[in-house]
Every structure is written in structure tokens, then in C-alpha cells.
Design a protein that fits this description.
About 40% of the residues lie in helices and about 10% in strands. By secondary structure, it is of the alpha/beta class. The protein has two domains: about 140 residues, Alpha-Beta Complex (Aspartate Aminotransferase, domain 1); about 250 residues, Type I PLP-dependent aspartate aminotransferase-like (Major domain) (Aspartate Aminotransferase, domain 2). The strands form three sheets. It has a seven-stranded mixed sheet, with helices on both faces. The chain binds pyridoxal-5'-phosphate.
């Protein structure tokens, strides 16, 4: 079964659902099928529905940060281009030295790790950091061309793996946590074809967060099988169940870098600081990895030392550097964070507030969370959450139906999840003004789809 046949337009609300024929026409006019649509294509479909039907949707499909940028970053970028006059010269492609120092201090104060500035590398978003790390993992072991993804995850990482001609293996968090997760990863690693393991934690989309014991276990697997852990900390510090945002004071952001040198940690500024548009992030390579000699790299990077290969053979030929001004912008945000100015983390706090309210609205209207606990504990509130509805066992059908009620999301299938019934909802574009709309629309949905 996919969905019950929905009743015609409800009497209680004259406006929801939308005219089925009109929605059907717009959906059919797209050059893709809803079931196979990428996130961007779903975004385009919702743009078209808004345009053609003249109605504003509650947009929960794209993970696009939507809060104003901190004035410290704006001022630092302005000064970089103005007083510093850096716009006409190439930036150092490993990162501006002051940024690297501030990054090392940030990593010390918020992750409790001692990493030299040299090993903190600026990348064009976590996107580039992940790409360069996946590439590195595959080049360190040319005879092992499979990346194990802990799922669900960021759909773009899957594109990166495919584009690099690599294979993707998966283990789903849904039924693998704690010792079971580590065991499943160990078993998969024993097949001998893996070069790396990739995950995001807090996790896009389930918002589960790996704990220190799981990370220690995964580090052990990486050490035993010589795998590169690619730890995507796109949501660093954003597990709001704990205060990870006070510098130099525990608890610290859990990280696999505490347990192994066979890892790259990637810290995005897009969500934590709401600094997505300027495309700057940090890749943290432990010194033991940075200095490691790996003869297999010579052929691809012209260098054996991992740090040199990553920078000179990986990042440099792709983008040469992160633009100067965003490097200075991130420097200002890191320095403020390091000095205890919590205002720079305002986006992280706001997203959690929204998630708390939105999750409640969905639950109150008969939806359930798909990934509904974190090793038996309640999930944190964050950038995403996952939902299903009792009378739908197919996420595409649920999405198709929700679109008639002016609410958009993406299917969990797109994120690599084995839970085909669910959707991922992103809170970033849904603030106070939209909460009453969500309430009204979900109420109409429930009225028309009694469970
Ligand atoms: C898990 C994950 N990694 C990476 C990114 C991209 O981050 P950035 O904007 O720093 O490239 C995202 C953005 O949604 C994400 O969810």
C-alpha cells in the first residue's frame, strides 16, 4: 500500500488541499519523476508550484541556512577587501596563517584536541573538505575503492563518491548503534575493499549524534584495517543537549580525532555560524596523518606525505584557495568564539528552538519521528528531523500528498536511509511566521488522512 485515496477538498478548510489537477499538471510538467528527483529538483518543483498556484509553501526541503550573518564576519570581510586590500592577490591555499592559528585554538577549546595550526586547513565549505578527503582515502589505497557511508547522510557525499568512480557501502544507524554499530562496521571492513568510512554527526538528517564510545570503536576499526575516517562535523557544537559552546570547559564536541590519527575532521561554518554563502570551512588533519608517508600517493599527487598531498595535490588543483575575504570573516568568528562570545553561535541556538516547535507540531498532527531516539535517549533538536505518517509506507507518496497541503520536504530514501517510508524536514526556512501555517496545513492533512 502506498497511500489511502485522499478525499476531495475538505469542507473545514476551503484552501487545503490545493487543486489536485493543477498540482498534477505542475508535477507532470517537470523533466523528472518525483521518485527520482534530487533535492535541487524538488526545490525547483516547489518553486514551480508556488509560481503556478500562487501559494506560498512551507519550505522544508532544502538545507539552506536562512539567518542573518553576524556583523563581525561582515566587518572582517569588508576590512579584508578595504584596508587590507587582499582582493587582487591569491590567498595562501592552505589558509591565511592567522586563520590557521585561530582554528587550532578553536579545536583546542571546543574539541579538546592539540593540533598544530599547520594541520588546520581552509576548504571551500565542508563540501570541498569531504570531496578532498574521499579522494585522499581512495588514493591511499588504489586497490580498495569502496567508501563505507554510515547512513542516512548528506546526499551530496553520495554524488561525490559516484563522481570519483568509487563504490559505496552502507550501514544504517537505524538498527546499528553503540557496540552493534562498531561490530557491523568491523564486519564490513573485514571484506578488505574499504578505503574509508564517512559519516556526519550530529547527523544530517536524523540528528542522532555518535558518542565517544562509538567514535572510539570506529577509530579502532580504522586502525585495524588502515581506513581513513571522514568525520563530517557540519553541525559541530549543535547537539544542544550538551553545552559544547563554552570555550575550554567540558563537555567537548565528541570527535573520532581523539582516538585515531587515521581521520580527517571537517568543521563547517555554514550552520554553526550561519556562514554558508561565503563557502569556507576547516579540515583538521591530526599530525600523525599530516606527516604520514604513503607511497601510493606519489602517483596521483606527486608527493608521499599525506598533508602535502592533501594540500598541494588535492585542494590546490581544484580551487587554489578559499577566497581571502571569507577566510578573514571566519577568522573573526573563530576569534570571537574562542574569546567566549556566544552570539556567534546564535544560528545554532535558533535552529534548535525551531526544531523543538516544529517537531511538536508534526507529532501533534499524527506524524511520528522515523529516527526517534538516540541510543534510548531523546534526540537533540537541530537543523533536521525525520517524519513518517501512519497510513503511508512510501516516502515519495507521502511527499506527493504533503505537497497538496503546501508543505515540502525530501524523502529519506534520498539520504541513503533504509527507511523508505519517511521524510526529512529542514527547519532553516521555517520560523515564527510559518508556525501557524504549519499548524493549519498539517491539521487539514490529518483531517483528510485519518490514521
Ligand atoms: C552533512 C553535511 N556536510 C556538508 C554540508 C555542506 O557544508 P558546507 O556548506 O560547509 O559545504 C552539509 C550541508 O547541508 C551537510 O549537511
Amino acid at each position: 500500500m502506498s497511500a489511502r485515496t485522499p478525499p476531495p477538498r475538505g469542507a473545514a478548510s476551503p484552501t487545503w488541499p490545493l487543486d489536485r489537477e493543477a498540482v498534477g499538471r505542475v508535477v507532470a510538467s517537470q523533466p523528472f519523476e518525483l521518485r527520482r528527483a534530487s533535492i535541487r529538483q524538488i526545490g525547483k518543483l516547489v518553486d514551480a508550484l508556488e509560481r503556478e498556484l500562487g501559494r506560498r509553501f512551507v519550505r522544508m526541503e532544502l538545507g539552506v541556512p536562512g539567518l542573518p550573518l553576524h556583523p563581525k564576519a561582515i566587518e572582517a570581510e569588508r576590512a579584508a577587501l578595504g584596508e587590507r586590500g587582499v582582493g587582487h592577490v591569491y590567498a595562501p591555499f592552505e589558509g591565511v596563517p592567522a586563520l590557521k592559528r585561530a582554528a587550532a585554538r578553536f579545536v583546542e577549546l571546543f574539541l579538546d584536541l592539540d593540533v598544530p595550526a599547520e594541520c588546520c586547513v581552509a576548504t571551500v565549505g565542508a563540501m570541498q573538505g569531504c570531496f578532498a578527503s574521499i579522494l585522499l582515502a581512495s588514493r591511499m589505497h588504489p586497490d580498495r575503492q569502496t567508501v563505507l557511508c554510515l547512513e542516512p547522510g548528506f546526499p551530496v557525499n553520495k554524488l561525490q563518491i559516484r563522481m570519483l568512480g568509487l563504490e559505496r557501502a552502507t550501514v544504517d544507524f537505524y538498527d546499528h548503534r553503540g557496540a552493534t554499530l562498531v561490530r557491523a562496521v568491523e564486519e564490513r571492513a573485514q571484506r578488505g575493499d574499504l578505503c574509508g568510512i564517512l559519516w556526519s554527526s550530529p547527523n544530517n538528517p536524523s540528528w542522532i549524534a555518535l558518542d565517544e564510545r562509538e567514535l572510539e570503536g570506529l577509530a579502532g576499526v580504522c586502525d585495524r584495517h588502515d581506513l581513513l575516517a571522514i568525520e563530517d562535523l557540519a553541525y559541530c557544537g549543535m547537539d544542544v543537549r550538551y553545552d559544547y559552546l563554552t570555550p575550554g570547559r567540558p563537555p567537548y564536541q565528541p570527535t573520532v580525532l581523539r582516538y585515531t590519527d587515521r581521520a580527517v575532521g571537517i568543521i563547517s561554518s555554514s550552520k554553526m555560524f550561519g556562514y554558508a554563502g561565503q563557502r569556507v570551512a576547516l579540515a583538521i588533519l591530526p599530525p600523525g596523518l599530516f606527516e604520514r608517508e604513503c607511497p601510493a600517493l606519489e602517483r596521483f599527487y606527486g608527493a608521499r606525505r599525506v598533508g602535502h598531498a592533501f594540500l598541494h595535490g588535492g585542494l590546490y588543483p581544484i580551487t587554489a584557495s578559499v577566497a581571502h575575504a571569507p577566510q578573514y570573516g571566519l577568522l573573526a568568528l573563530l576569534e570571537a568564539a574562542n574569546d567566549g562570545d556566544r552570539s556567534v553561535f546564535a544560528p545554532a541556538v535558533e535552529y534548535a528552538r525551531r526544531a523543538r516547535i516544529l517537531k511538536r507540531l508534526f507529532l501533534d498532527h499524527g506524524f511520528a519521528l522515523v529516527y526517534d531516539n538516540d541510543q534510548g535517549r531523546p534526540l537533540a533538536d537541530g537543523f533536521y528531523f525525520t517524519v513518517s505518517y501512519p497510513t503511508f509506507d512510501d516516502g515519495t507518496a507521502l511527499l506527493g500528498e504533503l505537497l497538496h497541503y503546501g508543505v515540502s520536504a525530501i524523502t529519506l530514501e534520498l539520504t541513503g536511509s533504509e527507511r523508505k517510508e519517511g521524510l526529512r524536514a529542514c527547519v532553516s526556512r521555517t520560523g515564527d511566521a510559518e508556525f501557524p501555517l504549519v499548524h493549519e496545513r498539517l491539521a487539514c492533512f490529518r483531517r483528510d488522512h485519518p490514521a
